[in-house]
Amino acid sequence: xxxxxxxxxxxxxxxxxxxxxxxxxxxxxxxxxxxxxxxxxxxxxxxxxxxxxxxxxxxxxxxxxxxxxxxxxxxxxxxxxxxxxxxxxxxxxxxxxxxxxxxxxxxxxxxxxxxxxxxxxxxxxxxxxxxxxxxxxxxxxxxxxxxxxxxxxxxxxxxxxxxxxxxxxxxxxxxxxxxxxxxxxxxxxxxxxxxxxxxxxxxxxxxxxxxxxxxxxxxxxxxxxxxxxxxxxxxxxxxxxxxxxxxxxxxxxxxxxxxxxxxxxxxxxxxxxxxxxxxxxxxxxxxxxxxxxxxxxxxxxxxxxxxxxxxxxxxxxxxxxxxxxxxx
Length: 328
What we know:
This protein has about 325 residues and is an alpha/beta fold. It folds into 2 domains: about 5-120 and about 280-300, NAD(P)-binding Rossmann-like Domain (Rossmann fold, 3-Layer(aba) Sandwich); about 125-275 and about 310-325, Dihydrodipicolinate Reductase, domain 2 (2-Layer Sandwich). It is about 35% helix and about 30% strand. The protein is built from 9 helices and 17 strands. The strands form 3 sheets. A 9-stranded mixed β-sheet has the order 16-13-12-11-7-10-9-8-17. It has a 6-stranded parallel β-sheet with strand order 3-2-1-4-5-6, with helices on both faces. A two-stranded antiparallel ribbon has the order 14-15. Strand 2 (about 25-30), helix 2 (about 35-45) and strand 3 (about 50) form a beta-alpha-beta unit. Helix 1 (about 15-25) crosses helix 8 and helix 6 (about 125-135) crosses helix 7 (about 160-180). It is globular and about 75 Å long.
């Protein structure tokens, strides 16, 4: 493997990207503005170069791929400069903080013939891959609705609200499972720690085929919960990412009609066996493969832009105090 990847931003999440690219034998440079952090990482990854100035990284011709794990507010600028420097780019979610900026990055990547991978990690999760398979092959039957909870205490942010911080994960999975964009969105928010930054949001997505999805996110919650439920007319599925043993379970519940009244017939959960693969490593490998083959990554710029578009309209609804917004 050629060492040609630079990770820009080696903080809370960036350190995981550094580890994975190092384990894959592709890490060339670690870039971070915190020089004490760089020194600590250098001791763990002595084969990697360290550099506090990201523009010097972009000027290095040995580096082919740039991984951006900086705060969301800087994603657009660094990605734009990286693409302009002829680099392939892996940018953590969200792609940008405005729809216009996201569209510009996708257009620039296509114009320059560059790879643009957006870090919607759950699309690489073995449980989500299996769940997509179950939905597509009709195992769950006709999909009625989906709902997701992504709850925790912290990490509080000041440059983005809870919707932009937590909900991209769930939006990307819902769009993947349904294979379509919503046609209507409404989002309600609660503002408790800061008058302009929502700490809690509840979003409803309505789709053309009649499916509805609900997304509840909060960083003011007493415990961590990351669950996605898919309800079909044959079976129901639960993706529980905080359960170490049973990530994906299927419930073969039935609804019987007795005297013209619906009566539930409950069944025990069936835990689905999954390969023990780290989603982040799969994502990093996809980026490396795309650089080598020049094929589109699993989560390309267009997919990242779809999530960004949904976020954009969710924000519009928040600003209208939950008013329904129709997607154009």
